[in-house]
Amino acid sequence: MEAQDLEKLVRWRMPYGKYEGRYLADLPGHYLAWFARNGFPDGDLGRLLALMFELDHNNLRGLLDPLRIPGDG
């Protein structure tokens, strides 16, 4: 994990699929679990989705709240 990865989760939007346009930090757990079972995409997106899965799975989504921009979303 890189130092900026948590901030990227609240800034990057899902580029495709059912949840296209939604912030990575706001993707539902079942969607993240699907990637965990079937494979994360290559590159930064896959790495960030895997990190978000771990945060969700361990009930740590609240760590991202202070990084969110008020009124954005």
UniProtKB/TrEMBL annotation:
One Pfam short name: QSregVF_b
Domain of life assignment: Bacteria
InterPro entries assigned: QSregVF_b (IPR024530)
UniProt protein name: Cytoplasmic protein
Lineage: Bacteria, Pseudomonadati, Pseudomonadota, Betaproteobacteria, Burkholderiales
